[in-house]
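Entry:
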Amino acid sequence: MFERPKSGESALLVHPAFGRSPDPADTEEFRLLAKSAGADIVDIVLYSRAKPESRFLIGGGKLEELAEQVEAEGIELLLFNHALSPSQERNIESACHCRVLDRTGLILDIFAQRARSYEGKLQVELAQLRYISTRLVRGWTHLERQKGGIGMRGPGETQLETDRRLLAVRVKSLEKRLAKVRSQRNQGRQARRKKPIPTVALVGYTNAGKSTLFNTLTDSKVYQADQLFATLDPTLRRLQLEGFDQIILADTVGFIQDLPHDLVEAFHATLQETVEADLLLHVVDASNPQRNEHIREVNTVLEMINAESCPQILVYNKIDQINQMPHIDIGDDNRINRIWVSALESDGLPLLHSAMVQFFSEGHKIVSLQLPPAQGDLRALLHEHHSILEEAFDPEGFWQIKARISVELMSSFKDYLVEQTTTEHEQENAEILLKSE
């Protein structure tokens, strides 16, 4: 009987490609994934084949070469940049006598290291259990069905069946706990909806610089590092914008190509912050030559979580690495398409602030109001919507108020208008165009 080898850190990376040559960008991303997991990378093996082999994924000749290299260099772990079926994983382990992990297992391991919050740990454990539940096959083949006889009678289960049953029980328990967490998060979101507080979520490919931008905008100290999936748990902070009482900014987990579906399902509670956001700041690593592909991958995941209809502003980050100046790209519809910034150097952030102010000011007008003392309910309505910009109390007992009012609320205040200015959207758009020029 072959027993599974112990896990190790000395790793050989295998990047198979079928019907084409391995993409250097994909190989580099795989290397960064392994490095983020803490692997000591010995070598990277590139492999091309017309189509996968059903038993080992790779051909028998290449498998023999891998087995020889594993033995010669004392390698403890084989990492495959491809999904492996449970039987393929087991067959390769048996042939090479070392631990084998595919791309999904590697990402799960990184997530397990990064999870800090109670919710994050629950989500990672749930995804891991769903992953390993299909990999219990032949894990306990030495324990056959219990036989008859004194002291040998039992429930009649193999250890494999017992493990599967216990896993199912644990999965149900985790799902119940996560349902409670989702309920608590929904309560928080409903409270924000009652006071309508605008919410902005940072989304983007992993290692695009979301956490650095988050820290710079909110003066926070969220963990940031030049590694994949540095952020796993969602973080909410208040963001100060000119003319707004408060804005909520959410930092979310980064996306990656071939993100396992189970991970998307498990992190539903976390990703719900993205779905519920009023605006998505789609952060892009401007220095990465694969940035267009990364944008497509992020949009694919947004479709998976039903967030594709959320308004987006593309934020091209890390312009300090490509000697680019901060600026704004305006589309044919006279709206902002892209903003070029450097979160690390704090370059271009005023443009980003102005763009968010413009977005949340659309459909609003800045007006001057004179409310009599008897209209305290209208004044309370302005406070409820965080609409008051300036307020004073004159000697005659009237409130002199400068406010930002939505078109929907304007009818309630039409009898108390003193002076009406241009729409704030027009003001901010003009200012942004001048700055970008």
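Residues 10-101 form a domain with the Rossmann fold fold (CATH 3.40.50.11060).
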